[in-house]
Design brief:
The chain is α+β, with helices and mostly antiparallel strands and about 140 residues long. The chain contains 2 helices and 6 strands; from the N terminus they run E-E-E-E-H-H-E-E. Helix content is about 25%, strand content about 40%.
Amino acid sequence: MTVTLQTGFELVHVIYDYWDQPRSGVADYHGEPHWFENIFDEEHDTYSDDYWLTRLTPEEFASAKDQSEMFLRWRHAFDRGEVDISSHPTLPQDAERYEKLKNQIQTAIKSKTAQRFKVPGKIILLGPPTEKREMATFQVQWSG
């Protein structure tokens, strides 16, 4: 699928958590892949417009994409009725590798807490799915 970003926006590559919109995952920041986490505003009991960003190495980015592909294979099988929700978020044959990648990614992010930085951002839909079983694509505009 070919996508055209709006001026000033960058691509969201991977969505890890989604609640009304992407809340964590991988997106470009100045052309480099970064882990993003939407910051929850406890005082107002809602998500803020601020995000923690953590730069990813090429290996970490590849792991996040691999893990996302495993989820997408599960999602397609789920949509076709081949698996039920009990196997979420991955197909049984991918479960061990998925967990390994998940642990690697989480460990990498936690090890870089001192290097993360806060940036305001706006994530919007880049385009709806072009096919019934395709996931939506998002773009992000960072203000810092």
